[in-house]
């Protein structure tokens, strides 16, 4: 009864085991014949299948090996056990065969995918070839084959791009014309005589805005009043105060000073160019005491006075260790000057003292000074424009070590180009800033604070290649300022201190460039503007 029960239980299990082994044999044999046409990723899956079959075969082996130790296989006959063992051995054999063939195919496919090695033919060395010919001079060998001696090392001399002109007076020799010509001699004689007619200092009254606008509307420009005077950009412009003739002076970036007499019929005959400096001429004024003298200041650290009567440029002030930015007259006699330096220093110069040095050197509270301007009524006050600060000083309380300003204007947010008192009373101050604003302050009472009156929106971004704008007052109408414009068509604009636009000068085809630097005649309705190519527009 026990044998019958075991046979009944074990028979289905043996049949399932034998069928599983036979199916494994069939599948293994089928994989052997079909795997030759498959790709590489299929071989990877076959390897996984083989491993599964191996595991199943190992399970069978483990079952067969452990069968004698189990009670449930104790009822199998020797024939059944032998058959089961043969099936397991066959399965292991085919599985190992399939695994080895799959690995062989995988190695062949890897070899096929490898790029063939490039076999470059090595150039054959010429045993008795002749080399390139080389110059014996480059080999530093003389014709006999003896090495030449090494040349002595010469010290390298760095040439200065803008060397200073020699100290002392310079002859007023025009570069564009012959200095011995009768025309140039007559030019000097004429302007020396014109300058002798002194202008009486009469009290000037402001003209009402309507009359002022009408006079501005009558001003015209044409091709005869536009001419190239200097080489390079113009940094300063001045008009001679004569009421009978028109003479324009222009200071250039190249250090030139050009004079243009508009009374000549031919423009070429009336232009004379001089070279009193080697760097930009940033400030240019006719002397208020003697209009036959024109004073020019340059970045090269020199301040000169051109004398028409003597045909010479005298040296007034020289400092080779510093660079000058601006100057102004401290009195009507033009004997005392105040000079601003780019490093923030201020010099007081007396022209009556022999020599070309300063009387006093003051260290201001500014890191740089762009412009300096003296109050027209109270001459002890002067205003300086720095990088982002504007200071008003009193010359009576200047300290050589470090002077503190009386008033500081801190409303500016970007770089400042200029700051000027109004020309008649000094009751207003106009500033030009890179934040596209012109500011007008009330300086009628110089105390601890100067209130801001008006802010005028104006494009002051001239870029790298144009001279920066500087808003200046009209010496005839001190409540109006003149400034260049970046707008199209090109123009020069005049604003009232209230912020209203008074007039715009349009020149049509005669004014097609930006006039960055402008000035007005002190008594006549004449405007002169210079652009960044050396042209003067009148």
How would you describe the overall organization of this protein?
The chain is α+β, with helices and mostly antiparallel strands and 538 residues long. 22% of the residues lie in helices and 28% in strands. The longest helix has 36 residues, at 78-113. The N and C termini lie far apart (138 Å). Residues 24-72 have low confidence and may be disordered. Residues 1-27, 52-76, 110-163 are annotated as: Disordered. Interacts with CUL4A and/or CUL4B. Keywords: Repeat, WD repeat. Residues 16-27 have a biased composition (Polar residues).
Features:
29 strands; single chain; 538 residues; alpha+beta; 5-stranded antiparallel sheet; 5 helices; 4-stranded antiparallel sheet; 22% helix
Shape: elongated
Strand residue percentage: 25-35%
Beta strands, count: 29
Percent helix, as a range, is 10-25%
Mean pLDDT: 82
Termini separation comes to: 138 Å
Give the oligomeric state of the chains in this entry, treating copies of one chain as homo and distinct chains as hetero.
single chain
Strand order of the largest sheet: 1-10-9-8-7
Total helical elements: 5
Uncertain segments are 24-72
Short structural description:
This protein has 538 residues and is of the alpha+beta class. The protein has five helices and 29 strands.
Task: Set out the fold topology.
Blueprint: H1 2-34, H2 40-66, H3 78-113, E1 170-171, H4 182-196, H5 209-217, E2 226-228, E3 234-239, E4 247-252, E5 257-261, E6 271-274, E7 281-286, E8 293-298, E9 302-307, E10 312-318, E11 324-329, E12 336-341, E13 345-350, E14 360-363, E15 371-374, E16 381-385, E17 390-394, E18 407-409, E19 416-421, E20 428-433, E21 437-442, E22 452-457, E23 472-474, E24 477-484, E25 491-496, E26 501-506, E27 517-520, E28 527-530, E29 535-537
Antiparallel strand pairs: 1-10, 2-29, 3-4, 4-5, 5-6, 7-8, 8-9, 9-10, 11-12, 12-13, 13-14, 15-16, 16-17, 17-18, 19-20, 20-21, 21-22, 23-24, 24-25, 25-26, 27-28, 28-29
Helix pairs in contact: 1-2, 1-3, 2-3
Family: Belongs to the WD repeat DDB2/WDR76 family.
Keywords: Repeat, WD repeat
Biased composition (Polar residues): 16-27
């Amino acid at each position: 009864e026990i044998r019958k029960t075991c046979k009944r239980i074990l028979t289905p299990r043996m049949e399932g085991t034998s069928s599983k082994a036979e199916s494994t044999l069939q599948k293994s044999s089928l994989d052997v014949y079909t795997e030759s046409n498959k790709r590489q990723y299929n071989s990877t899956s076959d390897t996984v299948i083989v491993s599964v079959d191996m595991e199943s075969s190992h399970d069978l082996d483990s079952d067969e090996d452990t069968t004698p130790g189990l009670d449930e296989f104790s009822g199998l006959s020797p024939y059944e056990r032998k058959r089961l063992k043969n099936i397991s051995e066959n399965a292991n054999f085919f599985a190992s065969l399939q695994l080895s063939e799959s690995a062989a195919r995988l190695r062949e496919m890897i070899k096929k995918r490898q790029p063939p090695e490039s076999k470059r033919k090595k150039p054959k060395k010429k045993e008795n070839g002749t080399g390139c010919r080389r110059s014996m001079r480059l080999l530093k060998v003389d014709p006999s084959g003896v090495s030449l001696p090494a040349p002595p090392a010469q010290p390298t001399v760095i040439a200065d791009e803008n060397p200073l002109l020699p100290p002392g007076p310079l002859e007023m020799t025009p570069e564009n014309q012959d200095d011995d010509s009768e025309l140039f001699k007559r030019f000097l004689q004429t302007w020396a005589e014109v300058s002798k007619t002194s202008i009486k200092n009469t009290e000037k009254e402001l003209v009402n805005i309507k009359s002022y606008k009408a006079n501005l509307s009558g001003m015209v420009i044409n091709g005869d009043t536009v001419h190239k005077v200097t080489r390079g950009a113009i940094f300063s412009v001045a008009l001679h105060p004569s009421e009978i003739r028109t003479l324009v002076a222009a200071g250039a970036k190249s250090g030139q000073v050009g004079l243009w007499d508009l009374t000549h019929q031919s423009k070429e005959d009336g232009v004379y160019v001089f070279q009193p400096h080697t760097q930009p001429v940033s400030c240019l004024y006719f002397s208020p005491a003697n209009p036959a003298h024109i004073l020019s200041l340059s970045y090269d650290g020199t301040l000169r006075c051109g004398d028409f009567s003597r045909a010479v440029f005298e040296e007034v002030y020289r400092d080779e260790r510093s660079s000058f930015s601006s100057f102004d007259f401290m009195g009507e006699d033009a004997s005392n000057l105040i000079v601003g330096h780019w490093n923030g220093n201020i010099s007081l110069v007396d022209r009556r003292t022999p020599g070309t040095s300063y009387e006093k050197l003051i260290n201001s509270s500014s890191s740089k000074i762009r412009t300096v301007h003296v109050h027209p009524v109270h001459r002890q006050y002067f205003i300086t424009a720095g990088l982002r600060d504007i200071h008003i000083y009193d010359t009576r309380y200047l300290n050589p070590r470090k002077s503190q300003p009386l008033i500081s204007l801190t409303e500016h947010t970007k770089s400042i180009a200029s700051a000027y008192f109004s020309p008649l009373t000094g009751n207003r101050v106009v500033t030009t800033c890179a934040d596209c604003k012109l500011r007008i302050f009330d300086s009628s009472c110089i105390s601890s604070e100067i209130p801001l009156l008006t802010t005028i929106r104006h494009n002051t971004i001239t870029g790298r290649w144009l001279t920066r704008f500087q808003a200046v007052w009209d010496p005839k109408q001190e409540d109006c300022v003149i400034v260049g414009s970046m707008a199209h068509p090109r123009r020069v604009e005049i604003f009232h201190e209230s912020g209203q636009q008074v007039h715009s000068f349009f020149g049509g085809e005669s004014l097609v460039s930006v006039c960055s630097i402008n000035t007005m005649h002190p008594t006549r309705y004449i405007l002169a503007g210079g652009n960044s190519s050396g042209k003067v527009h009148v």
